[in-house]
Amino acid sequence: MRYGYLAKTSSRPTVAISLKTLELLYRLRQRKASYSVEAFAKVLCDYYQIPYRRHLQEVLGDTFELYLCIIRHVDKSVHTTLGWDGPDWRPKNACRACCYVLNDEPPLTFSRLYAMDGNNSLKRMAMTSNCTAADTRVLDDSTYFLPRQFVDQYAKEVQGREAKGPAVHRRGIGHEEDSVSRSDC
Questions:
Q1: Among residues 22, 122, 28, 3, which one has the least CA distance to residue 69?
Q2: CA 147 – CA 139 distance, rounded (Å)
């Protein structure tokens, strides 16, 4: 790694990928999470004018996973050093500019504004046949998401609601006994 290359194995590597190439893939995936390693491997093969082989995609994928582990480890070390590793640090300090309060500053009517996308971004990551178009890794050390075990402990506390309004059931078209009016419900 001291020469600017990373291999998926440290002993007798046959293929090494430059850190700049891995950084490019990292930045592409930050902007478009569904950009696949396969597509990037094909672009690299085309750029270097070598035939695409699935083996190269697997090497790139494994090396990229190793690169992400290194990035997460470095980020975690920096956060620990700066004291940003508490369980409630991110919600309290999500945006340094928004959280910063001057001495003797008058209180604002609204200290923060939140916007939610209705989970639409996750809905775009749907399954298509047997393939998932999303990043399916589980990052247990993430400070952005609550761990699945923590969320699951509250699963039985939320009770389902019955649908509001009358349910309309039709067995056939044109039969009086099949149509249901609001007064019947």
A1: 22
A2: 9
CB neighbourhood size of 177 (10 A): 7
How high is the pLDDT of residue 144?
67
Residue given tokens 């004018």 in the structure block: 49
Q: Is 59 exposed, middle or buried (0-12, 13-18, 19+ CB in 10 A)?
A: buried
Plot region of 4 (φ>0 → left; ψ -120 to 50 → alpha; else → beta):
left
The structure tokens listed for 52 are 């695409």
d(CA 25, CA 36): 9
pTM of this prediction?
Answer: 0.59
Tens-digit pLDDT profile for residues 149-180: 887 888 887 666 555 555 554 444 444 444 44
